[in-house]
Design brief:
There is one protein chain. This protein is of the alpha/beta class. Helix content is about 40%, strand content about 20%. The strands form two sheets. A six-stranded mixed beta sheet has the order 1-4-3-2-5-6, sandwiched between helices. The protein binds 5'-O-[(R)-(carboxyoxy)(hydroxy)phosphoryl]adenosine (KG4) and zinc ion (ZN). The site of 5'-O-[(R)-(carboxyoxy)(hydroxy)phosphoryl]adenosine has 19 residues, from α5 and α6.
Length: about 375
């Protein structure tokens, strides 16, 4: 199926006993569906997952267009569900629980996943479980070959959120600090857009940064010494904009094609990334110090950033702190983390299952409130 960009399955994974959970993610610009089985001991195992990214569609607009996102989720979700069932060698009737992203995210996009989940739950007479998207990110390293142990500090860095949490166990999340304005992913995306890079800017900016000098531009590190664990990234894009205006390069679409501009842009990209990464690493170390914990989990799309990984790994290695990441392909949005979070909630006895086909999504939803 050509429109499915990435599909993976674990050979033979469909065979076996245990509760089968179908997970549906549709909170933003990725449609993800996955099957996770809790084995006899309750340990969750990913059987198959499939993902369709809408990036190509939104790129023409320089950002996510919510209405287009919802319509595309409608087109993709059922074919993706068929695909994972086929890959896992399971029938739809074998599904025991239907989990879906209840929030936070785009209301229309969330409603698509919730609507399909409700329809499946009703048709199959199976319970539903609404999952918090950030809980999915937070628990996604449990699908890696090096899963963490509770308790740990979590650095959640996505396109819409930047938070430090103390994670005591499944469903026991204490907010330590968060951004007061833009999220780290937003800082990457907005700065990249100013530089003429395609959407989503994070991965493009970090690629361009590889050839640049991170010390070339002096950019602000807001709230670095604020004495708390909050972040602020809004000033960064303003500083990037000021440098571009100074060069006469703002709103120049052909900027990256220019031999004159490209190396300077690479320096600006490297300096921007260095500013974001330094703040994230220092605040994470401060959170570890404050809590006395020796373990940290990095989750969300920005967790795929190699500079962040390298600097955090190095700083933590020197302090005897273990760092855990999700598998690289599970850093950004996916259905596997939703099915996994549902499985872990069931295992912990903290799953609020419902048989009511309620279209109850929460576009704004505080993780520490669940
Ligand atoms: O978690 P995610 O897939 O979606 C949300 O829940 O927001 O995160 C998407 C964000 C975007 O801002 C994207 O630019 C950023 O993650 N991102 C990166 C990288 N890969 C994705 N930022 C920096 N470096 C990367 N390699
Ligand atoms: Zn996300």
């Amino acid at each position: 199926m050509s429109e499915i960009h990435s599909v993976s399955s674990i050979p033979g994974g469909g065979v076996g006993e245990g509760q089968l959970i179908l997970g549906i993610e549709s909170s933003c610009d990725e449609t993800g569906v996955a099957l996770v089985r809790r084995d006899g001991a309750g340990v969750p195992r990913l059987l198959a997952h499939a993902l369709h990214s809408q990036i190509d569609m939104h790129q023409a607009y320089g950002g996510v267009v919510p209405e287009l996102a919802s319509r595309d989720h409608i087109r993709r979700v059922v074919p993706l569900a068929r695909q994972v069932l086929r890959d896992a060698g399971c029938t739809l009737q074998a599904v025991d629980v239907v989990a879906y992203t209840r929030g936070p995210g785009l209301a229309g996009a969330l409603l698509v996943g919730a609507g399909v989940a409700c329809a499946l739950g009703t048709a199959l007479d199976r319970p539903l479980l609404g999952v918090h998207h950030l809980e999915g990110h937070l628990l996604s390293p449990f699908l890696s070959t090096d899963p963490p142990e509770f308790p740990f500090v979590a650095l959640l860095v996505s396109g819409g959120h930047t938070q430090l949490m103390r994670v005591n166990g499944v469903g026991d999340y204490e907010l330590l600090g968060e951004t007061v304005d833009d999220a780290a992913g937003e800082a990457f995306d907005k700065s990249a857009k100013l530089m003429g890079l395609p959407y989503p800017g994070g991965p493009h900016l970090s690629r361009l940064a590889q050839t640049g000098n991170p010390g070339a531009f002096e950019l602000p590190r807001p709230m670095l010494h604020s004495g708390n664990l909050d972040f602020s990234f809004a000033g960064l894009k303003t500083a990037v904009r000021t440098h571009l205006v100074r060069q006469g390069w703002l709103d120049r679409e052909d900027l990256l094609l220019s031999d004159e501009a490209r190396p300077v842009l690479a320096d600006l990209a490297a300096s921007t990334q260095a500013a974001i990464v330094e703040v994230l690493v220092k605040k994470t170390l401060a959170a570890l110090k404050q809590t006395g914990l020796k373990r940290v989990v990095v989750a969300g799309g920005v967790g795929a950033n190699q500079a962040l990984r390298a600097q955090l790994d190095e700083a933590c290695r020197r302090r005897g702190i273990r760092v855990h990441y999700p598998e690289l392909h599970l850093c950004t949005d996916n259905g596997a983390m939703i099915a996994l979070a549902a499985a872990m909630r069931l295992q912990a006895g903290k799953a609020e299952l419902t048989r009511e086909p309620v279209f109850d999504v929460r576009p704004r939803w505080d993780l520490s409130a669940i």
